[in-house]
Amino acid sequence: MSEEIILETRDLVREFKGFIAVNGVNLRVQRGSIHALIGPNGAGKTTVFNLLTKFLAPTSGTIFYKSEDITGESPADIARRGVVRSFQISAVFPHLTVLENVRVALQRAMGNSFQFWRSERCLDTLTGRAIELLQSVDLAEFADAVTVELPYGRKRALEIATTLAMDPELMLLDEPTQGMAHEDVGRVTALIKKVSVNRTVLMVEHNMSVVAGISDRITVLQRGQILAEGPYAEVSNNPEVMEAYLGTGHD
Questions:
Q1: In degrees rounded to 5, what are phi and psi of residue 157?
Q2: Given 115, 118, 129, 217, which residue has the most CB atoms within 10 angstroms?
Q3: How far is CA 198 from the centre of its chain?
């Protein structure tokens, strides 16, 4: 793992009509790590994600990616830099096949507009890479399945495949195991570990067994501020963290 900081925020603030949702957050994400952002509901985790991917503009503060100031850039600019985000709610096309979903994502990665009217033959050049991506997330056998028919955990695996199609350097995963049965949690956790090789992962996650199992570093938010930061063993034994989050009926 490199010591290089790939993503950094300095004094990041976001206000909503007088309510401070994110208050002076200084976040440093190390290249090649899996970094978890945790905290109770309303702590500001998703707002931080929205600020990082420019779905929201900060009230004040600065965001750096690979030491470059990206605070004023658009979501498209951020994605072109290799910062790609998945969402809490699955964002795949339910009535396309699994393979078609990945090919659509590859069209975007190649800089093409979504050309749904193109013939199958024109898109065949993307099939080989799409199959490779499906193999990487253990979905090759489901390539011809209609996505809506997949179990929930497999849909989230497909979403990771479509994220990988963008060839991200930094993946932001928003609650990747939310709502999953135990066996799916284990599968997707192993998958995140697998695809993190040669990439950096920043994830919001409520499931503490997932966080403990794969995170290199954890940042705990409370009321929009960083409460604690460090490895799981250190953070989980922090009395303030235990009071604010870990001891209050976490998953």
A1: -65, -40
A2: 217
A3: 15
| SS3 state of residue 12 | strand
* Chain segment 145-184, per-residue pLDDT in tens: 999 999 988 998 999 999 898 889 999 999 899 888 888 8
- What the block records as the tokens of 243 is 């009071």
Residue range(s) occupied by CATH 3.40.50.300 in the chain = 1-82+169-183+200-251
Query: In terms of DSSP H, where are the helices of the chain?
Result: 45-52, 75-80, 98-109, 120-123, 127-136, 152-164, 182-195, 208-214, 232-235, 239-241
Question: Which residues on neighbouring strands pair with residue 109, listed in sequence order?
Answer: none
Q: Specify the CATH number of the domain 1-82+169-183+200-251.
A: 3.40.50.300
Centre a 10 Å sphere on the Cβ of residue 185 and count the other Cβ atoms it contains: 21
In this prediction the pTM is: 0.88
